[in-house]
Each structure stands twice: as structure tokens, then as C-alpha cells.
Amino acid sequence: EFRLETVESLDGQIDAQFIYAADLFEHRTVARMARQYVQIVQALAARPDTTIGEIALWDEAEISLLQKGEQ
Predict the structure, then answer these.
(1) DSSP type of residue 10
(2) pLDDT digits (tens, 9 = 90+) for 12-47
């Protein structure tokens, strides 16, 4: 129960909305995924030759938390 809906407006702007089952996903988890989605889109727009694997999805604070096993 998770999906991403995108709509392009007449002026070329793309609006995105994550729709998810709140009983299955925590808001902070979806917010993190949304930030990562924006990072991916911005990185690919800036450098279209970039592969997804080259894009950093975690900042230093998140990496530190993961290494400590707090997430």
C-alpha cells in the first residue's frame, strides 16, 4: 500500500505525492523516502549521465545512525 503519483502541469512543473497506508509505514519513513526521491531527481537533472548507484541517498547523520543500529 505505497505509491508515488506524479502530475505534470502545463508549465512543465512536476508535482509528486506519496500515498501510503499509515498503519504500514511511519510518516518519518515516508518523509525520508521523499527526500531521497528529490535527491535522485535533482542529481539526474544536474548530471543525466549519472547512474542511480552513484547518488548518495544518506547524509552523514543518517549513516551514523545506521552504523549505530538506531534505525
Answers:
(1) T
(2) 999 999 999 999 999 999 999 999 999 899 999 999
DSSP, collapsed to helix, strand or coil, labels residue 30 as helix
Q: Helix (H) and strand (E) counts for the chain?
A: 2, 2
Q: Which residue has the cell 518519518?
A: 28
Predicted TM-score (pTM) of this structure = 0.74
Q: How far is CA 49 from the centre of its chain?
A: 19
- CA torsion sign, 27 to 15 to 52 to 63? negative
Cα distance between residue 23 and residue 20, in whole Å: 9
What contacts 5, CB < 8 A, 6 or more positions away? 16, 17, 19
* C-alpha triplet 20, 25, 31: angle, nearest 5°: 80
* Range list of H helices, 11-55: 27-46
